[in-house]
From TrEMBL:
Lineage: Bacteria, Pseudomonadati, Pseudomonadota, Betaproteobacteria, Neisseriales
Record-given protein name: Nucleoid-associated protein
A GO cellular component entry from the record: nucleoid
Domain of life: Bacteria
InterPro entries attached to this UniProt entry: Nucleoid_associated_NdpA
Length: 347
């Protein structure tokens, strides 16, 4: 994991980017934006929103050099002159507008800024940041009058949360730089225009990504394959999910063969998982690694998605954390379904 500290902002320019599908157009500015009165607030917004656990890099088929944003960033790092910075930010705005063609994409402000003297693992590097604000926040302003006070609402950018953003560090240029991202509005397919259509980035294959990828593969396999198996009950599915999480929580290193044996155990289930993993890798265009150091942060993040609850109608929730052999499922003489649970002691 990289140790990253952000430097001081030196340049900022803001443009307005509309929705091309609605023919909103753009407003591209010819001069730098003045941020002197809000510099501390802006720096806090940037430092509090970006996490550096999972990092990314530019990519493009068939050649990285054909990635438009990558090319613009190259030009910005090569020439830090103010006029060049503004002109390249305009090119970025025009390209973002071309990619903003889904009817659900919101218009908003595109900010491009330059951070000097950042440190990545004790190496001093510069960084170019990009953000887009799509959701405005309202606040109440107290207006001082001679006879008292009035209230008025003001709409502006949030000072707590970025909608979309990325930081591009001037490292590993040939591999597509070192990139951190934030995307707090990426909840639907059309929102992926930011990371896929506009930036064209992919995760760097480090321990955080590898841990996340294998845990997600196991979760998808259990959910999709076991759902199609009529003999697999919910309690059996939850048992597999729990065993998957336990493996990652109780080991420092991942070994694929060991993982398959401890979690899935049966040869026929292991074979199904292997076939699913191969197809999943082809769909995601990401090749899993058989051995790697497990990332505790990735495990903690993914663990919340491994639900261990059996929901029975609207009346009961059963939380299962193991001990599948202590649970019995059946149907009585009247056709009613039941779970029978055995236990040693009551807390």
């Amino acid at each position: 994991m990289h140790n990253i500290h952000l430097g001081k902002i030196e340049q900022l320019v803001i443009h307005y980017i509309g929705n091309k599908n609605c023919s909103d157009g753009v407003r591209l500015c010819d001069e730098l934006s003045d941020y002197t009165n809000v510099e501390d607030t802006f720096n806090k917004l940037i430092t509090s929103n970006f996490k550096f656990d999972e990092l990314y890099q530019f990519h493009f088929f068939p050649d990285l050099e054909l990635n438009p944003v990558y090319t613009i960033i190259n030009a910005m790092f090569e020439n830090t002159d103010i006029d060049s910075f503004i002109n390249q930010s305009k090119n970025m705005g025009r390209y973002l507008y071309e990619k903003s063609n889904h009817p659900q994409i919101k218009a908003g402000e595109l900010g491009v800024f330059y951070l000097a003297d950042c440190t990545v693992d004790d190496e001093l590097v510069d960084c170019i940041g990009i953000f887009k604000s799509e959701n405005k926040q309202k606040i109440l302003k107290v207006e001082d009058k001679q006879t008292g006070y009035d209230l008025a609402d003001i709409e502006g950018l949030s000072i707590q949360k970025l909608d979309k953003g990325c930081l591009i560090f001037n490292l590993h240029r040939e591999q597509g730089y070192l990139i951190a991202i934030v995307d707090n509005t990426n909840r639907r397919a059309e929102a992926k225009y930011w990371t896929e259509d506009f930036l064209s980035i992919k995760p760097i294959n480090n321990e955080f990504h590898q841990t996340t990828y294998i845990m997600e593969t196991a979760k998808q396999f259990i959910a999709q394959t076991m759902d199609a198996d009529d003999e697999a009950s919910k309690s059996e599915k939850i048992d597999l999910l729990n065993r998957s999480v336990d493996y990652f929580k109780n080991n420092e290193q991942f070994d694929l063969q060991e993982f398959e044996q401890q979690v899935f155990a049966k040869d026929d289930l292991i074979k199904k998982y292997q076939d699913f993993s191969q197809n999943y890798a082809q769909e995601t265009q990401l090749e899993p690694v058989k051995n790697f150091d497990i990332s505790p942060k990735a495990v903690k993040k993914q663990e919340r998605y491994f639900k261990s609850v059996v929901k029975l109608d609207k009346n009961f929730h059963i939380y299962i954390h193991g001990g599948k052999d202590m649970i019995e499922k059946g149907r009585d003489g009247d056709g009613r379904k039941f779970y029978k649970i055995y236990y040693q002691e009551e807390n």
